[in-house]
Write a structure and sequence with these properties.
There is one protein chain. With 658 residues, the chain is α+β, with helices and mostly antiparallel strands. The protein is built from 17 helices and 22 strands. It is globular, with a radius of gyration of 35 Å.
């Protein structure tokens, strides 16, 4: 019987490694730029075509390579950065495995032009899918010029699953930002489809932050700096008032290397507890300096996850440093124990000084000989309303004593309860002239009548609903409670309104393949959007398709956009929040502005206009909301799949009360 275990060919092994190291064009840029940095480059230019799908070119002025080194660099596990296993625990370079170039060459067509410093002639090397096609002498400048063409041309499945150019370009921009932040001493230029996106000069850390994300960050950052035997911390954190609900700028670096570290992120968030809303996150740019022997960067192919030996100690130092910075800039509350003025004097306790309280007691008053007030007198002429209005006390003409206004005790408790409920219902009547937040819905359904359930596609009503009459009420300004034949129904008002608005907006988009009916409405005062470069790149691609949805967006300079028109149906929503949500959706999902994207647009618009938890609603608004909800195609599920309502069966209360 022949042996069945054999070594894989290098071309196959390189493609397997490429599956871990080279996931998308941004991964190629990361590996090539880090190689340029390790080569001592002070100027790096990145040129892209079709978001890296067609061409990724990285040009640097580093040390360059000889013709032999250039050929050897594309072999697996060939590197100049380590020589033995012990070097893994004292790394001072970005790369060390010797897999990146071999993996890139396995899934693309590579052309390298390079020359060592001090040499008079360079070399041109052409590799096609791990196969060396040619190597010839070439006259060039010192440094390296690497061109990666037709990425994944020989792996159709990988190329097919690349996302749209807007999504891939956004990922490239995020990777470029991380590389530029960690290498502030290098000049960077980024060119995409013959358009210069970034041109960064070397400088300080703060200058690089402002060059990347906007000069308005200059006054929004607080410096954080400390130096201990365990870790040195240097960087900036954002002011609490500049915390962001989406796309916060959050970067961790260690020894000049980018990293993701949820544990340290939690430490930063703990410092902002009670300073920012729960749905917001602060900006931070924090660089840690530790002994290379106390970290392990060899736990993930992308080298973005790093294990620290002294995680708990670094947590405490990081937390103390950030809180100290927030306190020094008067962001957090502080206690002053040295105040000498305006201190209230506390008298010394003297046990012999007993002062009896002055109490005006009527000696003729007998609390057991009086009658109780009637329901009318107890609740007042205005009754008890849903807002707990208390009637003003009536003046007593019998000498100011409450006893003069009391009558005989009431023994008809049924009449007292009916009187209480009648006055409660009168108090719940909406005040005349009160405006309704939710649009009124014409309905012929009487209060308490059965609502015929429509044909539901999904999330059909698991119960026989009754139309809201006077029985629906709001609990904690967040939930609507009403009765059904199965028990007590609890409805999330935000999700219910989200479903109603989503259905309404989707009805205006037309059938699939048709043009939507969102007519643009000019804004009286155009809103200016300050976007990040990655967001601005996505907006450039979406500008024309957005016109079909009623948005008129005009460029107003570098990463600045003016919202000159919005859909007429969006008048009650925030165009800024809607557009930012749309950019996020396109970036994360890669959807076109076709029918699927219109669903995202409708959802974004609905989220912007839906009532929030904690917002009080009048009786008319509650009735309108429930009427539209029970007429929806999916009244039990919100557009994002979350439950809108739940029912507590009658036997639940019987079990609880016994």
């Amino acid at each position: 019987m022949s042996d069945i275990i054999r070594l894989l060919p290098d071309s196959v092994a390189n493609q397997i490694a490429a599956g871990e190291v080279i996931q998308r064009p941004a991964s190629v840029i990361k590996e090539l730029v880090e190689n340029s940095v390790d080569a001592g480059a002070t100027s790096i230019t990145i040129v892209l075509k079709d978001a890296g799908r067609t061409l990724i070119q990285v040009v640097d002025n580093g040390s360059g390579m000889s013709d032999t080194d250039a050929l050897m660099a594309f072999e697996r596990h060939a590197t100049s950065k380590i020589t033995e296993a012990a070097d893994l625990f004292s790394l001072h370079t970005m790369g060390f495995r010797g897999e990146a170039l071999a993996s890139i060459a396995a899934v693309s067509q590579v052309e390298l032009v390079t020359m060592k410093r001090g040499a008079t002639l360079g070399t041109r090397l052409i590799i096609n899918g791990s196969k060396v096609e040619s190597q010839e002498p070439e006259a060039c400048v010192a440094g390296s010029n690497m061109m990666v063409k037709n990425l994944f041309f020989n792996v159709p499945a990988r190329r097919k699953f690349l996302k749209k150019d807007t999504v891939e370009m956004s990922a490239i921009m995020r990777e470029f930002e991380r590389l530029a932040l960690v290498n502030t001493g290098v000049d960077f230029t980024l060119v995409s489809n013959d358009v210069t996106v970034h041109s960064l000069m070397h400088g300080s850390f703060k200058r690089r932050i402002c060059d990347l994300f906007g000069k308005n960050l200059d006054k929004q950052l607080i410096p954080v700096e400390t130096d201990t035997s365990i870790v040195g911390i240097q960087g900036f954190v954002g002011l609490p008032e500049n915390a962001r609900r989406r796309n916060p700028l959050q970067f961790f670096m260690v020894n000049g290397r980018n990293m993701r570290h949820p544990y340290f992120h939690k430490a930063v968030m703990q410092c902002y507890e009670h300073l920012i809303p729960a749905d917001s996150q602060p900006n931070y740019f924090i660089n840690l300096r530790v002994d290379p022997e106390t970290i392990d960067v060899n736990i993930h192919p992308t080298k973005n996850e790093i294990k620290f030996e002294n995680e708990q100690g670094i947590w405490q130092i990081l937390t103390a440093a950030i809180r100290d910075s927030l306190g020094r800039f008067n962001v957090g509350p502080s206690l002053d124990f040295n105040r000498d003025n305006d201190v209230p004097e506390i008298p010394v306790f003297d046990p012999s000084d007993r002062v009896a309280p002055e109490i005006d007691i009527d000696p003729s008053y007998n609390p057991f000989g009086e009658s109780v007030p009637s329901a009318t007198e107890f609740f007042g002429q205005s009754g008890v309303t849903g807002r707990r209005h208390v009637a003003a006390p009536r003046e007593n003409t019998a000498g100011g004593s409450l006893r003069g206004s009391l009558r005989a005790p009431v023994t008809d408790w049924a009449q007292l309860y009916d009187d209480f409920m009648r006055k409660r219902d009168e108090g719940l009547d909406p005040e005349p002239g009160s405006g309704a937040v939710l649009p009124a819905v014409e309905s012929d359904t009487a209060a308490g009548a059965t609502v015929p359930a429509p044909e539901h596609r999904d999330g059909a009503l698991p119960f026989e609903a009754t139309a809201p009459g006077g029985g629906a009420m709001q609990y904690r300004n967040s939930y609507i409670i009403t009765s059904s034949r199965e028990g007590l129904m609890v409805i999330d008002q935000h999700r219910a309104h989200l479903r109603v608005l989503y259905d309404r907006y989707m009805a205006k988009t037309g059938a699939e393949g048709e043009q939507p009916e969102f007519a643009p409405q000019a804004t009286m005062f155009p809103e200016i959007l300050e976007l990040s470069p990655s967001q601005s790149a996505v907006m450039s691609e979406l500008r024309e398709p957005l016109k079909c949805l009623g948005f008129v967006v005009t460029p107003r300079g570098e990463n600045r956009w003016s919202v000159d028109g919005i859909p007429a149906r969006l008048s009650e929503s925030s165009p800024r929040e809607t557009l930012l949500a749309m950019i996020d959706n396109v970036t994360e999902t890669g959807l076109d502005l076709n029918w699927a994207m219109r669903e995202q647009v409708a959802l974004s618009m609905a989220r912007s206009g839906a009532v929030r938890r904690g917002q009080p609603l009048s009786s008319d608004e509650i009735d309108s909301l429930l009427s539209e909800l029970f007429s929806s195609t999916s009244p039990t599920l919100a557009p994002d799949g979350k439950k809108i309502l739940t029912i507590l069966p009658d036997d639940t209360f019987q079990r609880i009360l016994g």
